[in-house]
Design a protein that fits this description.
Blueprint lengths: L11 E2 L3 E5 L8 E10 L8 E9 L3 E8 L12 E10 L13 E5 L10 E9 L9 E9 L31 H20 L10 E2 L2 E2 L5 E2 L1
Parallel strand pairs: 2-12
Antiparallel strand pairs: 1-3, 2-3, 3-8, 4-7, 4-9, 5-6, 5-8, 10-11
Length: 219
């Protein structure tokens, strides 16, 4: 007798875009925010139940989703980016190792918005500590409704109430909504520039899937 496999939804995970905090011309400038876009294939959507990933020195996570909503008559209205998770704590003490390489699960009840008909996900990663110059998330998987993820030994302190987080940890980091909006504008500009150039030529801002960090300075 067979058992039901735990199958995550197929998706494309783009390379992280690192955003600079501070003056890039001085040693005070450092990567403090990273943005990762996750796209579903062939314009598909998912009724998202759970996101599972392994942390790599990211202190806080915010999520924005691109949802396709329907009008009362059944016609699709324009897709809209909405924030569904804000400053979720992955490392309770960003200057120390705790939580830095743990597995995490973020499920539907924890989200701030409806997770049906999701077409894309934007992850905004924050690391306010100067101790860790490199941070990301790994082994990212999306699980639809009625599909449970395999257990990976999630940390016991997974829920980190916002009132327990020192407010000063976010000092100097740009707002998550502002980051998402400006990165979205940058990618739209990139697509327009690429479309206007001859086939096969690399766009000015797009080099092997990465973006020129000189264009992404946040002070």
């Amino acid at each position: 007798m067979g058992t039901m496999a735990h199958e995550p939804s197929p998706c494309t995970i783009k390379s992280p875009v690192m955003l600079q905090v501070g003056d890039m011309r001085t040693e005070l400038g450092r990567p403090g925010v990273a943005v990762i876009d996750v796209i579903l294939p062939h314009s598909q959507t998912i009724d998202l139940q759970e996101i599972v990933f392994k942390n790599y020195y990211t202190a806080f996570l915010s999520l924005r989703v691109l949802r396709q909503s329907s009008t009362g008559g059944g016609d699709e209205s324009p897709s809209k980016w909405v924030t569904c998770l804000r400053n979720y704590c992955l490392m309770p003490h960003p200057h120390t190792e705790e939580g830095s390489q743990d597995y995490f699960s973020v499920s539907r009840p924890q989200m701030l918005c409806d997770m049906d008909r999701v077409a894309a996900i934007r992850l905004i990663l924050r690391q306010p500590s100067p101790v860790w110059l490199h941070f990301s998330i790994e082994e990212l998987q999306l699980f639809p409704v009625n599909q449970k993820s395999p257990q990976k030994g999630f940390p016991a302190w997974l829920s980190c109430p916002s009132q327990e987080r020192p407010a000063s940890l976010h000092d100097g980091l740009p707002d998550a909504d502002r980051v998402s909006s400006e990165v979205q504008q940058m990618w739209v500009l990139t697509e327009m520039l690429q479309a206007s150039q001859p086939a096969g030529q690399i766009g000015r801002f797009d080099v092997d899937g990465c973006y020129d960090l000189n264009l992404l300075s946040y002070t």
